[in-house]
Amino acid sequence: MATGHITRDDQALDKELAGLLSVESFEPSEEFRAHATLNDPAIYEEADRDWQGWWASQAEKLDWFTPWNQVLDDSNPPFYKWFLGGKLNVSYNCVDRHVLAGNGARVAYHWRGEEGEERDITYADLHRDVQKFANALKDLGIQKGDVIGIYAGMIPETVVSMLACSRIGAVHNVVFGGFSAESVRERMEFSEAKALITVDGAARKGKTAAVKQSVDEVMGDLETLKNIIVIQAKGTECEMKDGRDVWFHEICEAAADECPAEPMDAEDPLFVLYTSGSTAKPKGILHTTGGYLTGASTTHRYVFDVKPESDVYWCCADVGWITGHTYIVYGPLSNGVTSVMYEGAPDYPHRGIWWELVERYKATIFYTAPTAIRACVKWGTEHPDKFDLTSLRLLGTVGEPINPKAWLWYHKVIGGERCPIVDTWWQTETGAIMITPLPGITATKPGSATQAFPGIKVEVVDERDGKPIDEGQGLLVITRPWPSMLRTLYKDDERFVEVYWKKFGKQTYLVGDAARKDKDGYYWVIGRIDDVVNVSGHRLSTAEVESAIVACESVAEAAVIGQSDEDTGQAITAFVTLQGTTAGTDEAEALIRAGVAERIGKFARPKRIIFADDLPKTRSGKIMRRLLRDIAEGRALGDVTTLRDPTVMAALEKQIQSEQAKEE
User: Would 391 disulfide with which of 243, 277, 362, 377, CB 3.0-4.6 Å?
Assistant: First the structure.
């Protein structure tokens, strides 16, 4: 068992992990099971027998101003509605009720800045700051239903901004801090945001990015945007435009202290979050108030077995993604838990910073992505071995399937073989975890998300006829509604139906992932079935990246695919055709990567660029990405007779062989 501050031989560990690969499943310890909130498998049957009643019993754990009169309205699928007639407020449930219960002094967040800055924010602090900022938004003319953009990174003010929006009924649209300013503008334009909350500057591995300045360069002519609210995070110099720009701290100081929480209908919008789709236009996922908070609070409570009085919980995601919304903000706060929030990267200022913070704050629950775990494996055990990790009692993974060896490394090196691992599967669209172990009940299998959460009904079905597959591979679907499901795509009901409900009918949600169901009924998620690349848990449409590449100088056409990658799960490979007789050079590669970073973000840069004279297309002009995947992975090519020019593939094969010869 890992006890912290130990020395470990990585080669010997590799042999030990290789031996553990033969272990089919891992049972929760008797000690963990005895103290778990859920430890009776009968919970699955109970939730399945009366699933609407079960979800209603979970919703009752929240504070409602007005009780609902109908649990589920399924009269117009797929436009399902939950807890009709009920009124509540998300901010009130995340802050006020804990303060009123006498827990205002409890720390909500141990915040740590990239350079070692520390702030402890209590629930009473949040209560004060959220009310002040909510009133400040009202003073600017923000009203219920207005969309407010947030582009501010991993700082407490981001959480305050989200809660202030929910307090007055404004709809927030948070954008991941790694996206470029152009991506922010696009999302503000689509959502018709009335204001944008941003920062003067943001930490980037020892450097400070001038965020407000970048925003100003692209946002000037956006007519719907009336105000830019600037958080003074780093003291970075920035221009403030009269009549539009205001300082966060100044408007808060001028605002009234008390702001009663607005009673919101359960189906009132809470937030829009844009995610990449299979076309260049991002999808605005719309989540509503009552159902979303029920799903977030319930899954957080049971999947992580949280004990608010004693746990210190740390989700390492970014608040700009759905994992951050649900499991950094709304899930933990609704359950009154103390969390860790870290501004920086896992390898800055050193590769052991995560483990240093686990020791520093005595974290008990740790939730991260397989990509990050693989990076830690690559860096070696010397970094976690410097720190005492014995406070940890539960580990989790999110964002993509985890390979068994990384799971076992996590289990042994970080968890000391005593911590259950909850390998969770869910989406921006689902709002909350759908497939997961329950740590006090489920025997886990490395690499499998195991079983559906209680009350959730998932199936693996045949791609052709939609019939369930008892054992084997097919498409993953969800076959009954759940409270935290997306209600629609923002201002695009038609696309909502087309993308998620057309293939198998309006009562079967098409996940978009392939999966396998094993003999024990465990689910193994394989990956996307559409043209979406999952890089380090960040979903990007191929069309979005292709558009950024084609925007680069001298580029005529581009096709993007995802390839398996040891470090990031998937990496982007781009096939690029240049204009005229322009040659593919190292300089051209550098310009393309820089262009993608500028237009989307650094995480979207292609790892591999293959220059081609032409791309394989059907007679109708559609690029055959299936063939590009085959050729990039070195697989035998299928039928190429449907191509407009079959000789293109031979030329590409020759090009790739030439590249490989150079590398050797």
Answer: 362
CB-CB contact of 405 with 17 (8 Å)? yes
Model confidence at 638, pLDDT cuts 50, 70, 90, reads: low
pTM of the full structure: 0.86
- How far is the C-alpha of 530 from the C-alpha of 15, rounded, in Å? 37
Is the bond into 78 cis (omega within 30 degrees of 0)?
yes
Q: How far apart are CA 614 and CA 54, in angstroms?
A: 56
CA distance 344 to 322: 19
Phi (first) and psi of residue 422, to 5 degrees: -100, 105
Domains of the chain, earliest start first: 10-67+279-528 (3.40.50.12780), 90-262 (3.40.50.12780), 532-663 (3.30.300.30)
Q: Which of 447, 440, 398 is nearest to 420 (CA)?
A: 440
Phi then psi for 216, rounded to 5 degrees? -60, -35
Q: Residue 504 CB: number of other CB atoms within 10 A?
A: 18
E runs forming strands in 317-452: 338-342, 365-368, 394-397, 421-423
How confident is the model over 369-427, as pLDDT tens digits?
988 898 888 888 999 999 999 999 999 999 888 888 889 999 999 999 999 999 999 99
For residues 350 and 411, what is the distance between their CA atoms, to the nearest angstrom? 22
